Amino acid sequence: QFSKIIHLHIHLLSNAKEAKLDPPDKKSLKAVSKRLFDHTDKDKNGWISHRELEQLIKKLAQEFEMDPPTSSDIDDTWEKLDKNNDEKITPDEFNDFVVELLEALS
Question: CA-CA distances (angstroms) from residue 97 to 18, 20, 30, 94?
């Protein structure tokens, strides 16, 4: 389901760009981010662990037919997301990352 959400959103962003439509607003991007966060937070403790992030990155790489991420790739992504260095990714940290990523694709 996660991959379908990503694929659908990228498809919608691409079509909006080609049709010269306005890209989705921050509210809709935040809604997508929340769904992705909830899907990634497997143990439902309200934050994403290093292991959960690793599983997400590996799944995305597989779905988009990319080379598997290295441990260094995963650690680098973790450092970018865990802005306050508390060893967990909060919904706000995750949202900032996903919105930035989706805006870059639009």
Answer: 24, 25, 10, 5
Contact between 17 and 106 (Cβ < 8 Å): yes
Rg from Cα positions in the chain: 14
Longest dimension (CA), the chain: 42
The one-digit pLDDT tens for each residue of the chain (106 residues) are: 445 555 555 555 555 555 444 556 778 778 888 888 998 999 999 999 999 999 988 888 887 788 888 999 899 989 989 999 999 999 999 998 887 776 665 5
Identify residue 43 by its one-letter amino acid code: D
Q: Are 40 and 60 in contact (CB under 8 A)?
A: no
C-alpha 40/C-alpha 59 separation (Å) is 11
Distance CA 89, CA 94 (A): 6
